[in-house]
C-alpha cells in the first residue's frame, strides 16, 4: 500500500467569546448562546486527540485541523499538522458558517488533501493501534460497514439522512449493484448475525432502505467529491447556503452511502469501534473499558451543568496516555 493517507479533524472552541459573539450575530434573541454553557465548552482533549494519533497511527501522512479562525492553547510542533481556517477552502459567500455539513461537504476543496483521507469529528478518538488497512484496502477501497438499516424518523437530522439516501436511490439503484456485491452486504464474519438478519429482512424492498451508521471515523475518496461536484454541483451549493443545519442539507454520509451502494468498499468488522454516551460519572467506566478494547471510541457527552466540572476533569484524566 504505497498511497498516502491523510486525517482531517474539525474542531471549534465553543467557549471562545469571540466565536460566541460571531455566532450570536446570526441568531435570534431566543437562540443566542452563552459562552459559559457547558454544551459549547471545549473540554481540552484536542491535544490528547493528536497524542493518540501519533502513538497509534504513526503512519499517517498529514493531519488537517479545521478551525473557525481559532488555535489550540498548546504549541503545534509536528510539521504534519496543517491548520486551516474555514476561509482557506470554503467559498467566501458561504461564510461564516456554523453548519458542520457545510464544512464537511467542502473538504474536497483543500488542494493539498490527498485522494485517500479519513474524516474525524473531534470526539472520535483513536483508542488502540490502527493500521492503514483499517481504513483502506491495499487497492484503495474504503473499509466500511455495509449492512442495511432502515432510516428511523426521530428528529430533523433524520430528514438529512433521508436526503442522502434519496439521492443514492435515484443514481445508484439497488438492482444494479446488490447482486454483484452480495457478500459485502451479507457478511456474518464482519457484521454479526443480528446485522445480517436485519439486512435480509429488508431485501423485500426494491430500493436501498438505508445503511447502518456506526458514527465512526470515515475513510473517503477525494475524487468522488470532485466527480459529484461535476455531475451534481447543486448538492454542494444547496448545503453550503445554510449557515446553520437545515433539513434540506446533505452530509458527508452521502459519499459514504455512495461507496456502499456501488460496492466500492471492503467490509469493516463491527468490533472496530463504538460510540459511548457520557451523562454521568458511571458512564466513565464504559469509556475506560472501550479505550482498551476498541480501535476507535466516540465520546458523545450530554453532561448537565451541575455535574460538568467533576465529570469533565475525570474524563480528561481517564483519556491521558
TrEMBL record:
Pfam families: Stealth_CR1, Stealth_CR2. Its EC number is 5.1.3.2. Residues 3-29 form the Stealth protein CR1 conserved region domain. Residues 39-141 form the Stealth protein CR2 conserved region domain. One of its GO terms (biological process) is polysaccharide biosynthetic process. Keywords: Exopolysaccharide synthesis, Isomerase, Transferase. GO terms for molecular function: transferase activity, transferring phosphorus-containing groups; UDP-glucose 4-epimerase activity. Belongs to the stealth family. This is UDP-glucose 4-epimerase. It comes from Lactiplantibacillus plantarum (Lactobacillus plantarum).
